[in-house]
Amino acid sequence: MDFQYGWLLNLICYLPLAGALLMMFFINKENAGALKGFATVVAGVDFVLSIPLWFLYRPDGPEFQFATRFDWIPSVGVQYIFGVDGFAVLLILLTTLLGFIAVYSSFTAITERQKEYYIFLLLLQTGMLGVFCSLDFILFYVFWEVMLVPMYFLIGVWGGPRRLYAAIKFFLYTLVGSVLMLVGILALYFFNAGGLAAVGLEGLGNEATFSITHLYTIATQIPPEMQFWVFLAFFVGFAIKVPMFPFHTWLPDAHVEAPTAGSVILAAVLLKMGTYGFVRFSLPILPDATVEAVGWVGVLAIIAIVYGALVAMAQKDMKKLVAYSSVSHMGFVMLGMFALNEAGLRGSILQMLNHGVSTGALFLLVGIVYERRHNRMIAEYGGIAKVMPLYATFFMIMTMSSIGLPTLNGFIGEFTILIGAFHHSWVWALFGASGIVLGAAYMLWLYQRVFFGELTNEKNKALPDLNLREQWTLIPLIVVAFWIGLYPKPFFDRMAPSVDRVLERVVAARPDLDTGAARVAEIAHAPAAEPAGEHGE
Amino acid sequence: MTFYDLIWLVPVFPLIGAAFNGLVSNRLGLPKTVTHTVALLGAGAAWLWGWAAVVQWMLTEDTHRPYVVEVFSWIQGGELAIYGGRVVPLEVAASFQIDALSAVMLGFVTFVGFLIHLYSVGYMHSESDRAYARFFSYLNLFMFAMLTLVTGSNLPVLFVGWEGVGLCSYLLIGFYFEKDWCAAAGMKAFIVNRIGDFGFLLAIFFAFFYFGTLEFAGLHEAMAAHHGVPAAAATIIGVLLFVGAMGKSAQIPLYVWLPDAMAGPTPVSALIHAATMVTAGVYMVARCNFFYQLSPTAMLTVAVVGGATAVFSATIGLVQNDIKKVLAYSTVSQLGYMFLAAGVGAYIAAIFHVVTHAFFKACLFLGSGSVIHACGGEQDMRKMGGLRKHMPTTFWTFVAATVAIAGIPPLAGFVSKDMILAKAFEAGLTDLNGYGTVYFLLWGLGLAGAALTAFYMFRLVYMTFFGSFRGGEEAEHHLHESPWTMTLPLQVLAVLSIVGGLLIGFPGQLFHLEGWSLIERFMAPVVLGHGEHGHHAVSFALEWGLVVVSVAAAVAGILVARRFYRLDPSFAKPRALAERFPFAYRLLLNKYWVDELYDATVISGTVKGSRLLWEVDARVVDGAVNGAAHSTVGSSFLSGVFDLKVVDGGVNLVARIYDVASRAFRRLQVGYAQGYAMVMVFGAAVLLGVFYLIKL
Asked: Distance from B615 to chain A by nearest Cα, in Å?
């Protein structure tokens, strides 16, 4: 663990919290201009502060960097440990960028209770950053739960007509998951320490600690049966967050009801918590259970890809369509991750960023017309490329990014994921790649219905095109989309050692890890006429 | 510095043009002169640089080997355990190459591309400034993608171009996006192509799995060495790649998007949907010939699909009345010929036909554009006629290209098509891969297709340019020859349609002059194992025999067309024929109802399936969640009742008991000391009594 610049990471994490407190006490709720300005400055400074992380992070090893460590509740072994590795640092940059954009994009969308709104947005940001920084399970859990509260209020107060239903659903659903996760955490804690006699759990007798890096080192000592149960507890917690089929139904409701910035943050960052949890905990701490679960998770991921895409196609509400597309895209992330090879996992992590950028931008874009028309139904639009050409262009770029057009970010992620998935099982790649066809179908169909054709709806005839502020909420995302699409090397370089380390831990526990190479070879020797024989493994 | 070291600049020039016109001209609405100057500079620079690079490369490097220029490392996927347990890093470079095949493609794409840019200056002049900028931006972007496609040195870079041209095709088909059917056609093109790309992507994965590289040079080498890779690998990869080609190059069953793609402006049809993009599939198969060379099954698949498409779409072309639709089905048919060639192992003939087809089909499309331009947007040939008087240049160029495509010697179409048919016949004769009968059959199909081609092309010429004008007097008044920007490209392409074939692919074998075919000599190193087999199983006499047969078929087609559409201006004969065989006529006119079939099965199946799943999602999956919530709420209500009635009721009951009891005892609490004393005494007595009793 490298402690250099640890203060910077803490500063980035708590600056939004400090900003929120200052706002709470020193800015009058009537002074909308000051509220917006201050929140924007705080989020902006936070993003600017996080930029040095990109340069200071040394991609030469899997070591955690920018670390901080001290005892917090020594009596039970809770420590305060901060630190990031290759993929956490990328997710932190994603969070600060999207956090800033979320604040900046809310100026005209939010007109009521502005003070509380910006306070909650900033609090949310500290929560999210804390999750990516924490290397102690209790600390992680605290941030994980802290995150829920502002999001609950953002949906419940500033949301659409069914906001209460959506907010409560979101809150309770994720709470169920996180409570199970807590049980898993405690099980690991007691196993590492003295055991828990009440449930017949024998411990290793180590010093009691919630330190994640310590738990990494005992991974191979955890018996498979226990791994299974803890994996299951974690799985429910993370799978709800991702969300994986069939735990996804809170997502469309939350997205549809949430204000635009809420949707953006929800899609871009909150969903990554689930997949991040898998990479951070499930894979390295529970390698045996992970390898055993590969088949099932793969099937669920494939269902998510295909099912999410098909359900997206049937949507009449733009936001709901994008929400279901998230289910499909996050299916790709899970598929690549559980291929358990370098290409798959790298692609998976890159796709987390890609999804944040593309889907975040798509929610922003939908929000922009919603703000003008207060209507998200696809049928209400049609032909608006004529009145909003710039908007149409931006939407087209993000559509292409979302459906994985080469030279844009989505392609790099999907390509590496699918080639990784292929090397696990060609059947995975076969089904996964079908998501690319369906993705093009639902996105282009959406695009056609909204932008093309004759402009018939009177209400759309005077829609103003993007204003300068709206353009600048989108331009950074477009730049990143092209950057990752054309030159993803800096991203891959930063995550590579950390990805390798995660896989090393899995392989250390399961040297027999089946890379799928043998299975693909089988079909080549089989008669060539049977390409679809090994369905659904 | 050499031109070919900076080969990547060739696609970059038009990209700059696209960026300028898209970001600056379009936004600011700059005048048209600025827009098309930039666009022409972009395309022109690509042309000059491309040709200079090719020439310089030929003069300085060994043309038997591809010259690869790596620009930067693009994708770093980490290490993967591939076939045979080898662990190989997945590194994809943005790298470009020149070899004979790329050189040929580069040569004609930049050239034809430039001509069509020039033509567009005239054709699109009535658009608004912004639309004009948008058009040229897309057109330049297309050049970028197409040039990336033909110069990429590995499968993923080829795929970049592949998808890029698809995007531009989508954008340009839907250029008039206010019209629903244009936008729908664009979407159809993109999605059908994506189905093909699905196969292409899987092919890339299989290729990496078996060979650990995606570079063409590496794959070529590996296939040449036959090192321990199962034979089925070549078949799997070959067939999957061909699925991609079916989409891009509009072969059965994925051809349906191309006729609809005619919704785009005519220069787009010429450039993208005739001369360049649609031949990308042929290029890809030729580029990956090493897989096909080692897989008889893959070769046969390509040949059969190609041959079938060639005839199938030619039959549709027989009865269409929309001038561009006829040309569209003709393109599908000609692409079929190219795949037929590739499928018999004559990759060079396939590419040769790509080039000659680019000349004459671009000329035909541009000519049709000139006609449509003159007729004020009218595309129905039944409302044309007699145009040769009004548009002499368009007329002669169009006829030259028509004679070429019909296969009349010595024009370009004849030379390349004859080469294909001869190779197909040869494949039958030598019993190639043991499928000789099939190849004979395919040759027969090809021959029939040649006759059909000659018929429908001359039908088009007669209906459009001969006879008298049928479009009304007012329209006739407007008929005019097009401006020079439009006629110059026509003239250049017409000349090339006439002499281009002999120039680049002189059929030396017909004159005991083997080796006079430049393209064959030049491209030989590209094809795996080319020249290993003893060549020319076909004797000299038979070679000439085949020429005579194919020319006879073409002439027959022309004569029938002349009888039907030239000698009888009322078109009575074809009408009578249609009335005699109404079903056959409607079958062809409605394009075998394939679109309707797809609509009824795949498309409506997907849409209905998606709606069904949505119902399932809302009712079952989410229903379970809400059900859980409701049952929680329900049970909490019950426990609330329990709490209120039983638990709280119990508490209250106890309280009540105390209440009642205390009422009874309250009487005792009256405040008199005597009373208390008395109670005390009684109490003590009772306690003592109890105590005593217990003690006993």
From this structure: 9
What does each C-alpha distance from B678 to B228, B673, B685 come to in angstroms? 116, 9, 10
Q: Are A270 and A132 in contact (CB under 8 A)?
A: no
- Identify the domain containing residue A414 by its residue range: 329-537
Scanning B472-539, the segments in alpha helix (DSSP H) are: 473-478, 484-505, 518-523
End-to-end CA distance of chain A: 40
Report the C-alpha gap between B493 and B496 in whole angstroms: 5
Partner residue facing B625 (CB), from A249, A445, A492? A249
Written as six digits, the tokens of A16 are 């939004």
Domain assignment of residue A185, yes or no: no
Give chain A's largest Cα–Cα span: 76
Residue A149 contacts B, CB cutoff 8 Å: no
- Give Cα separations from B65 to A141, B99, B523 (angstroms): 60, 7, 11
Query: Going by C-beta distance under 8 Å and a sequence separation of 6 or more, which residues neighbour residue A129?
Result: A12, A13, A16, A92, A95, A96
For the whole model, what pTM was predicted? 0.89
Instruction: Point out the residue among B83, B174, B205 whose CB comes nearest to the CB of A452.
Output: B174
pLDDT tens readout for residues A388-413: 999 999 999 999 999 999 999 999 99
**pLDDT for the residue numbered B263:** 86
What letters, b where the CB count within 10 A reaches 16 and e where it falls short, cover B138-166? bbbbbbbbbbbbbbbbbbbbbbbbbbbbb
Give the domain ranges of chain B.
1-294, 295-589, 597-669
Return phi, psi of residue B74, to 5°: -95, -60
**Dihedral sign for Cα atoms in the order A62, A68, A71, A72:** negative
Q: How many domains does chain A have?
A: 1
- Residue B692 tokens read as 């005593």
Domain assignment of residue A283, yes or no? no
Q: Which amino acid would we find at residue B380?
A: D
Where are the extended beta strands (E) located within B539-596? none
Chain A's closest residue to B628, CA to CA, is: A173
**Cβ-defined contact of B78 to A500 (cutoff 8 Å):** yes
CA B345 to CA B24: how far, in whole Å? 48
pLDDT at residue A343 tops 60: yes
Residue A93 CB partners (closer than 8 Å, separation 6+): A50, A51, A53, A54
- Is A342's CB within 8 Å of B76's CB? no
Query: What token pair was written down for B608?
Result: 């209905």
What's the confidence (pLDDT) of residue B585? 84
Structure tokens at A17: 């919290």
Whole-angstrom distance, CA of residue B635 vs CA of residue B249: 63
- H/E stretch holding A66 reads strand A65-73
Q: Identify the helix (H) or strand (E) that includes residue A234.
A: helix A224-241
Residue A241 lies in a domain: no
d(CA B33, CA B52): 27
- Chain A, 360 to 419: residues with Cβ < 8 Å from chain B are 383, 385-386, 389-390, 400, 405-407, 411-412, 415-416, 418-419
Q: Say whether B670 sits in a helix, a strand or coil.
A: coil
- Rounded Cα distance, A325 and A439, in Å: 8
What does the pLDDT look like over A218-256, one tens digit per residue? 888 888 889 999 999 999 999 999 889 888 889 998 999
Instruction: Give the torsion through C-alpha atoms of B360, B305, B280, B187, to 10 deg.
Output: 100
- Which of 173-192 (B) contact A at CB < 8 A? 174, 177-180, 182-184, 186-187, 190-191
- CA torsion through residues B198, B204, B205, B206, sign: positive
Please provide the DSSP assignment of B103-120 as one string.
Answer: HHHHHHHHHHHHHHHHHH
The minimum CA-CA distance between A275 and chain B, rounded to whole Å, is: 19
Judge whether A519 lies within some domain: yes
Nearest-by-Cβ selection for A520 from B178, B182, B209: B209
Nearest to A313 among B202, B206, B607 (CB): B607
